[in-house]
Specification:
Length: 128
């Protein structure tokens, strides 16, 4: 006959949300799209957040005082030509919103896979 399988339920504490959020923000970096996973491995459990995200950012402010090359708005002419500006790393504005396309949070205890009460709504408050 059938036996009832009792699932373990694990409650996600604020500290766990914070640690997973920190790992995810580090993995996102300056991207506007993220597809991947982050893991949190402790003595008590191992968890993995697999997700696809769209990241909305504030507009980036111009560097160098607003001029074309940061030189007061003028071009640097060389023999009638225009010199290229030194390459600056792209500017990523602050994260305004993160929209999950898909996500899955899994958690394993030494006894096995555990159901959990992970909530994206709760988690998002640690991201933005």
């Amino acid at each position: 006959m059938f036996t009832e399988k009792k699932e373990l339920m694990f409650s996600i504490a604020p500290e766990i949300y914070q640690q997973v959020a920190s790992a995810l923000l580090e993995a996102i970096g300056d991207k506007e799209f993220f597809n991947g996973s982050v893991e949190l491995d402790t003595d008590e459990f191992r968890s993995t957040l697999r997700t696809t995200l769209i990241i909305y950012r504030d507009k980036c402010t111009e560097r160098g005082g607003g001029g074309t090359l940061g030189l007061g708005g003028g071009f640097l002419g060389l023999s009638g030509g225009v010199a290229a500006a030194p390459a600056e790393p792209p500017c990523a504005g602050a994260i305004r919103d993160i929209v999950p396309v898909w996500w899955e949070f899994s958690l394993s205890l030494p006894e096995g896979e555990a159901e959990n009460d992970f909530s994206w709504r709760e988690f998002k408050s640690y991201l933005v």
